[in-house]
Amino acid sequence: MPRKPKPKLALDLQYNPDGSPIAGVGPGVGLEFIKAYFPEAQNIIRIASAYFSLLGYKLGRKYVASDVQFQILVGREEGRHVRATVIDEIMADLAQCDTDLWKTVFELVERMKSGRFIIRDAREMQVPFHCKFYICDSKLIWHGSSNYSRKGLCESAEQVSVSHDSEQIRLFTNWYDSVAQNAQDLLAELIKKLEDWLNLATPFEVYLKTLFLLNNLAEYPLCSGAYSPVYYQKGVIARALRQANEYGGALIIAATGLGKTVIGAEIALRLQPIGRTSQVILIAPGGVRENWEQQLENRNVYFKFFNIDLLFRKASEESRHLTTQLEKRLQRANDNTVIIIDEAHFYRNELLRKKSKRGKSLVYERIVPAVKAGAKIFLLTATAYGTDYLNLNSLLYLLPHRFYKPNLLEEQIPWEISDAEEFSRLPIVTILGLPHVLQMARNRGDIDTNGRTFIQFGDERRYLPKSLKLYSLRYQLFLQPELQAAFDRRCFDQAFKSPHEWFDDEKMALCESAIDTVYNSSLTNWLSSPVAMAYSIEQNLATLSSCEQTEDSSQLTLNLWEQSVTDIHNQEHRSFNVFDTQNRSHKTPMYLSLEERSNTLMPLLARLRQSNYTDDKFLKLQNIIQEHCLDTKGKVIIFVKRYLTAQYLLSMLERTFSDALKIGCTVETDEGNPRLKAGLERSEVLKQFSPRSHNYNASREYDVLICTDADGVGVNLQDADTVVNYDPPEGADELFQRAGRVLRITANSERVIQFYRLVPLIIDQTDSLSRVQNDICKRFTRIVHRHDKSKRILGSGVISEEEHSEITLDRDLDVEQLTRDSQFLKDIGGLGAESMLSHVAVLEQYRSRAEDLPEYLLSARGYSKPQPRIFVLLKYESKYCPILFNLSSQKLEKQDELAFLDLIACIESEPCAAIQAAEIEKIANQAARAWCDFENISVDQVSKICGLYLVPRDKTAEINRLLDDISNYEK
């Protein structure tokens, strides 16, 4: 049944024979008595009221002669120390959006300055003051329950009665005057606050106030062990909370070492409903679990951790199976669920998987329904871009889809982009790179006596490395003429190529081609190490061609292999173990016959098996370790792609450096087969290599660490200062993740770090007809291309095409200098390209000033657009809502938060435009009412915090005519 409308209370009045009211009850009774009796006052109107408001004053002032003095005594049963509350109550009317007050306030200030308005606070009197009466000269008094506010005069049901009794009037007057002598005078403070509002703020103050309110975070108590967010993290956290409110989640890209864990833990803490605990599902690599547990547990956030690879696995019928547990939790997700995925780039190929002919992604099948059910999701990574822009769209697909209205039919579509700049400007994406943090610190004035920019972490100063030294070292591939000829003779070709789907950034389309997996794998092994190449040849010689495959082909392969091994034995005069050809062979037949391949490859395999074989690539690594470990007492991390190469380097380095250095490795050999060490064992190796960064008391300490990209994510290895890309990575994300192990903020202001990449000399050959030479060139060109695209997103590079280059992170031509170049900022992106970076930097530079700005600000400035607009920051239910209103079209214009900030951003010296303050208030209120109508919200529930009128330059006269037209229309 529909609710019955609430009955409206009547206003009942009793009148004298002359028609003036003598008593009344009901809503609006106070205003009726003001209309009847304020005009009779000639000298003084004394008012005692629990409340006084500007809206109430506006209602009464037009019934009072200009030379009559107002005396206001405000009191309410609030106890002591509430003087500021009276001022706040008066000033709060400036935030309302229903009534224009500028002219009223101007007239009131004039009254105050001329002594025709006096206001005192009686709330701190020894006895609570709760009187409500009005005395007009010595002629009459009326009293009752009506306060001198709009609510008391017009809205609330009150009772009032009038008296002309001279004795009663004298009694009340004397008592009023005696109380007023001891009450607190508010006049000077109120004049100052009202004049500040009347005189308009500067455009910069409106911009700064908006920045402060949109990015300010309340302090939350933390337990010991939880790190408080630093200033640059606070901007990301505040933005993420607004993204959660508006979009349901966010993708946060923060350079390695900038504290993604703290950012994520703070988001989880602040999204907890009051009085309840959110269900936080944390999906992350096992290597970062300890860090997450420390930050979440010490914030009293309840969470469940799941390893990031579980989403790739099929669920089990076993209820205790972790994949099954994760799947069930996601199925139960609702709007009280928070999903945090750390190192989200693990899922960068899921959209390719979904779009492929297989058309299935277990990751999407599990996460997307949970998000649609209302779960808020936050994706954290340092490297979103790996090989193509589909990587970025893969991550965007995990976020809540946006609403789209084609042909008036609303539907949800995923976020997607076609280039890096578009990606960095998405309202659901936040990017924080190293240059951004440097600029914010410099703008804050965080520069030490040596001119170095530092990052303030509580009481500690931390620094980015002083410089990045990038080296590109050439080496001679082993057996280059012979192996190049073997590749070009098709000795490593499959008989049948495999279908392959990939994404073309230039065409922005999914493409299909055929690839030779054996050829590519063999080429990767050649670029890695002699032992890896030997393994490829062994696999090759254990595989028949398509013509040779028969029902008894395995026996044929074994016979041919045994014969070949005998040849090798005779050549090398040493034993050679025969292995299981079926387990070692390729799954696809080869293009050439086994005999053809054997004639070419067997002699090469024999040479690769010689223990005294010279490997120029290893010699280059040996020199790097000599320089950075023995000569300068540093530490070196070596990244490889092949387990065999890891074991090869371990053996060679231990033999080369004997007892001089301790070598750690995350790969081990099990019954002759190399494999990754178990998680706990690898973690122990990493701690023994970098004990200080782990706050670990190591029984032994490694000088060199050999590892794969399995340990290139989320691990802090800042005890080291050198990273060697021994094997080239496939994607830019791997490259930046490797660098991120040492590119960290530390207490050492003089720290210098080195990044090496080893490049084969074969890529320098020109006009070559060799297929394999061209393929190698393409590989190294491709990684440079991918690196440069990722660099545009993150803002800094980690490889150089030159033999040696250096980026000085302070002074000279450096990343920080480049961040001051707006074009560079547009190229690199970051917190919405240059926008949020610049905004947060400004806020940090002027934070103390922002904290002291007045509560309510109005201003105007010129801008380059042709149509006049007004920006208004509203507050609704404790949330700040920026809006933009077009005066020409009389319509609201939807913008994302960064676009609003970009629009109102200005320098400190930006002048006010020549627009009357009263007109700014009028159109700000008009914009606020338009927003309330659109959102179906009562205007009484909304406060107007800031208003900035944007005036097209050189069109002030036209604008004033437009404002006159608007005013006339409203009349």
From TrEMBL:
SUPFAM superfamilies: P-loop containing nucleoside triphosphate hydrolases (SSF52540), Phospholipase D/nuclease (SSF56024). The keyword ATP-binding applies. The keyword Nucleotide-binding applies. Transmembrane segments: none annotated. Residues 624-795 form the Helicase C-terminal domain. It comes from the Bacteria. GO terms for molecular function: ATP binding; DNA binding; hydrolase activity. Keywords: ATP-binding, Hydrolase, Nucleotide-binding. InterPro entries: AAA+_ATPase, Helicase/UvrB_N, Helicase_ATP-bd, Helicase_C-like, P-loop_NTPase, PLD-like_dom, SNF2/RAD54-like_C. It holds the Pfam family PLDc_2. CDD domains: SF2_C_SNF. PANTHER family: RNA HELICASE. This is Helicase C-terminal domain-containing protein.
